[in-house]
Design goal:
With 82 residues, the chain is mainly alpha-helical. The protein has six helices and two strands, in the order E-H-H-H-H-H-E-H. The relative contact order is 0.18.
Length: 82
């Protein structure tokens, strides 16, 4: 399974599924499938999404689950104390 941050990034930008789908030229239902993990994006679609969000590919898609924001903050706090 490939994990993604599509929903998080979409919501952060204040976009509906339809807005995002229209912007990259796909069906809005595909965005829903991606967000729920019911569908793995093709390589072409994955790059379109990364380009749209202006992020490196690996910041949007990863084979390992993404750490939660709380976990990331805790890790950076521990690293800063060392």
């Amino acid at each position: 399974m490939i994990h993604n941050r599509v929903k998080l990034l979409r919501v952060e930008k204040g976009l509906s599924r339809k807005d995002l789908a229209d912007a990259i030229g796909i069906n809005f239902q595909t965005i829903g499938y991606l967000e729920r993990g019911d569908y793995n994006a093709s390589l072409e679609l994955a790059f379109k999404l990364a380009d749209f969000f202006e992020l490196p590919f690996e910041m949007v898609f990863n084979p390992k689950p993404f750490k939660s924001l709380a976990e990331q903050l805790a890790a950076s706090s521990i690293a800063a104390k060392e």
